[in-house]
Amino acid sequence: MKKKISMLVFLMVAALLAAAMAGAEAAQAPTLETLSEYDWSFMSGAGGWATYIRINPDGSFTGDYHDSEMGETGDDYPYGTIYGCVFHGQLTLGEQVSDYAWSVHVDAVEMDEGQVPESIEDGTRYVTIEPYGLTAGNDMLLFLPGTPVDELPEEFLLWAHLIGSDETELPNYGLYDEAADTGFIAEEPFEVLEGE
Question: pTM for the full model?
Fold first, then answer.
């Protein structure tokens, strides 16, 4: 009788542990709702260029890209040239591909309508060009916070600003497009303080 009770207790504990582990894995699974809580940036950390996106809970996103080239001047634009655009698109969150990564498909990336191809304002030339960092049709990897640095692709470490860092884990979410070698880092949204 004791053996039967011990076996029953063992099976109950095993079932509870399996349920707890399944719940923990489900809690770690990213959602578009979670990704929408962050601002996402792609930049080298040096130079005058950056791409920013904001993901919505339905997977749509908006963004802007700019690249400041202050050395590209002319008689009418002595203060340089700024390339960039405002854009929007759609992402689909896919399946888990490793302990620390999920697939994300870039369904569409389109520039917003109404942008002037080129203009000069206040001594600066503005040129509208395609955004840099997201490519329609490409698959990206979504790395979870806590991903060990030694599990990340070496090429992604530059975009995550982890080269030469003492960090042993990715501090927040990261999005990496291996084919295009581009990477976005999730950051807490900036708070805009209203004047009194």
Answer: 0.81
